[in-house]
Amino acid sequence: MTFFSYKNGEMHAEGVALATIAAQVGTPFYCYSAGALRAAWKEFADHLKGMNAEVCYAMKANSSLAVVRLFGELGAGSDIVSIGEMRRALAAGIPARRIIYSGVGKKPSELMAALEAGVGQINVESSYELETLNAVAGQLGVKADITIRVNPDVDAKTHAKITTGRKGNKFGVDIDLAREAYALAGKLPNLNVVGVAMHIGSQLTSLDPYRDAIVRVRELVTQLRADGHKIDRFDIGGGLGIVYAQEKPPAIADFLAMVARETAGLGCALTFEPGRRLVGEAGVLVSEVILVKPGAAKTFVIVDAAMNDLIRPTLYEAWHDILPVRERPQAATIRCDIVGPICESGDYLAQDRDMAPLAAGDLIMIRSAGAYGAVMASTYNTRPLAPEVMVDGTRFAVTRPRPSIDELLSAERFVPWQEPVKS
Ligand SMILES: Cc1ncc(COP(=O)(O)O)c(C=O)c1O
Ligand SMILES: N[C@@H](CCCC[NH3+])C(=O)O
Question: Cα–Cα distance between 175 and 153 in angstroms, integer?
Answer without folding.
Answer: 7
